[in-house]
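Tutorial handout. Part one gives the primary structure; part two gives the three-dimensional structure as tokens.
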Amino acid sequence: MNDKPMNPKFVEYDEEPPQPIKIADGTYIEPLITDTATDEQAAIERDDDPESASPSGVEVEATSWAAKRPKTLVLTGVLALFAALLVLSKIWRDGVTLAEFLVTGNEMTPTEKILSCVQSRLGEKMNAVSLADIEDTLRTLPFVRDVVATKEFPSAIRLRFIERVPVAVAVVGGKLRLIDDDGYALTADLSTLNDKRLPLLVGFEKIRRAENGLLKLDSAEAWNALQLLKEIGRRETAKMLLSEIHIENPKRLYALAPDAEAKFIFGDGGEYQRKLRYLDAFWKQVVVKKGLKSFEYIDLRFDGKIFAK
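Part two.
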């Protein structure tokens, strides 16, 4: 039988193949090439096999928990501090009593008058004191436009006042009263003005009782006069020059200077800042030289011109 020729198989090597192992009896052993798994495949198989899991996973888990531990301790400390503050706050609210009032922002209203309205609250427990009740009580005082009460640690209440601004005096109901910039007629001791110069407001006819119980000038009748008075209050020269404001005829609203009969006519057209600038200029350029006795009126209503007679 003829042997069929065998096709040789060639294997390419980058290096020479390892020499076969020689055995004592003269035979040779050729190493068997097998399909062995790579290290990466073996690692994947170990990961998939729960029984062959490496204890390194436990080490990673422990390391991660150790890294989070400081944050956990900080959060726990913050919560403990917050809880302690809540406990202390409850003890303060339940046990501390009101010991004093701190008053700020009042100029026209004497502090003694304010304290006399709220001193009955001293000794009450801080958590039982109603700030709204205190504010409502103090808003009934004549010059108080608004007041805000706040509790302050450990046992005080601060009272912050916003007062009405007087701009004139007027005779209302046979009594001399202060008129504020909203037109309220306020009963007050004139000594509280501290030498402030306020003009006398005359010529109004209508007055009513407002919702807050205070007397108030009619808005339509006194509107222009109040706007003029606000501007006068911002100018020291005008406060020195003008002593009376007359509103008998709103369209011819006018003012008088002390010891003079000449009328400074402002009218009802607004622009009182400009008109007061004209008054200042006329006074410096004319009145200082000639005086007022020779004039019957000085009309300031027209832009760019001053008419005098």
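Part three, for discussion. The radius of gyration is 48 Å. Residues 56-95 form the longest helix (40 residues).
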